[in-house]
Specification:
The complex is a heterodimer. In chain A, 76% of the residues lie in helices and 0% in strands. Chain A has 12 helices and no strands. Chain A has helices at residues 2-9, 11-33, 52-55, 63-94, 100-108, 115-129, 135-159, 163-171, 176-205, 208-213, 220-230, 235-265. In chain A, α2 packs across α12 and α4 packs parallel to α7. The mean pLDDT of chain A is 90. The longest helix of chain B has 42 residues, at 72-113. The radius of gyration of chain B is 26 Å and the shape is globular. In chain B, α3 (72-113) runs antiparallel to α4 (118-126). In chain B, 72% of the residues lie in helices and 3% in strands. Mean pLDDT of chain B is 86; it is low at 1-21. In chain B, β1 (57-60) and β2 (64-67) form a beta hairpin. Classes of the chains: A mainly alpha, B mainly alpha. Chains A and B meet through α2, α4, α5, α6 and α7 of A and α2, α3, α4, α5 and α8 of B.
Amino acid sequence: MPVVNWLKRHLVVIAGLFTLAYLLLPNVIVTVFSFNKPKGRFNYQWQQFSLDAWKQPCGVADMCNSLSLSLQIAVWATLGATVLGTMISFALVRYRFRARGAINSLIFLPMAMPEVVMAASLLTLFLNMGAQLGFWTILIAHIMFCLSFVVTAVKARVMSMDPRLEEAARDLYAGPVQTFLRVTLPIAAPGIAAGALLSFALSFDDFIITNFNAGSTVTFPMFVWGSAQRGTPVQINVIGTAMFLLAVLLVLVSMLINNRRNSQKA
Amino acid sequence: MSTLTEAPPPLAPAKSAAKPPRRRGRFTPYWLLLPGILWLVVFFALPLVYQASTSVQTGSLEEGYKVTWHFATYWNALSEYWPQFLRSIFYAAGATVLCLLLGYPLAYLIAFRAGRWRNLIMILVIAPFFTSFLIRTLAWKTILADNGPVVHALNSLHILDLTDFLGWTAGDRVLATPLAVVCGLTYNFLPFMILPLYTSLERIDGRLHEAAGDLYAKPSTTFRKVTFPLSMPGVVSGTLLTFIPAAGDYVNSELLGSTDTRMIGNVIQTQFLRILDYPTAAALSFILMAAILAMVTIYIRRSGTEDLV
């Protein structure tokens, strides 16, 4: 039975590709339905091909406002979490001091806690402080949950770094600032970039924590959530498709740059 | 207290002399840590304390709340919402098992079989992260729609009869049933399983497979005795990364389920944001946290990879 043998030999590949299809099916649907002209408020059934939504991506009231708000929050949260997280990682890898264990678990815990627990407890704090829910409370929350991911990403990179490189720089009379800017930072950069990218994606896409701490402010995920009840405009699928393509493009470009750099070295 | 018998340990100065001289200050690590750790203490740890105190308060929204050490809230919450708790654990466990079954072949494919396609497949696994997961979850509504091709196919294969019998689906529907919710959870947390699995599979030395083959191990034996045991760190962190967020999730059960599939996250969200019964909501989220911490601790002990966390 050659067919059975062939199937047996390629079982892993077939199963793996099946999973990949499962993973990408919603993206295909989102793309296809961005060209739909729906009847009624919901865009769940295929009606007719149309480019309307692509011609007017901001044709829905408030959608692009929420999108730009989400982008702003993601940028600031990424900056905040990346700076604070990088500082923590350097301290943890390069220095021995008391309370290291406690600090390590304080950093691990936010990643091991269900989001809804963090969201609810943060809301309790804000309510007790009488804080006005909105942009600032969202930003505070996003920096909080992105921080741990940045620390983990940067730590992994800094740990594999040879401290003798910095010693060599100092022996060549580089000052501490010069050593940091010209030796330490460039070597740690890929880890920091990975942490920043992860923060951006997490912050931009976060729904649960934002839903609790946003008050009446509407971020893009919250707009999508609301539209699931009120009616989903086709433009949501346009944004979804554009983000997917942009992500693929960005990763491809960064990989090409990496490849070129590596081949230059070789 | 110092006496002549308690001489200073002679090793201490020798040890510090062996270290390279530090040019930066003694307090540098603390300055580096301060802002970030302060952020986590104030906006992560302190809120948990506030929540603990809220859970033992009584009162009302109009008159204000007071700490009265009213532990009965916990008992009441548990006796009223235990079905949702149980359901959350079952759904999350089901999604985790499915993620492992689906994710392992793909991680294996990327690590050992993809060749020059490796980077492309990796991009396709990561890129959906950048499309809002809510939009993608809504797409499942279209995929699993009542008269859609998926339901049609499952129906004609009589699979829906079986799942209906098991209570996973209802009649000819998939949407608004437990199956739809578990399918959504599996989908949403699958990348969190694939990435750690891939990381630990990729570290495995390919020569070990050859060695196993040279010793006349069948491919299945090689997998069972070499590959899988060596990928255990990935399995453990992958299952944790899918189980924990899945147990607290309320998006999938809200968008793809019905009132009969409500999970504990839905209850906490409703109590907190709509009913405004803060003590009950706080107690519920504490029970969820405690239950998950307990299960995770037992699981990590059992799997024998304590150094992981």
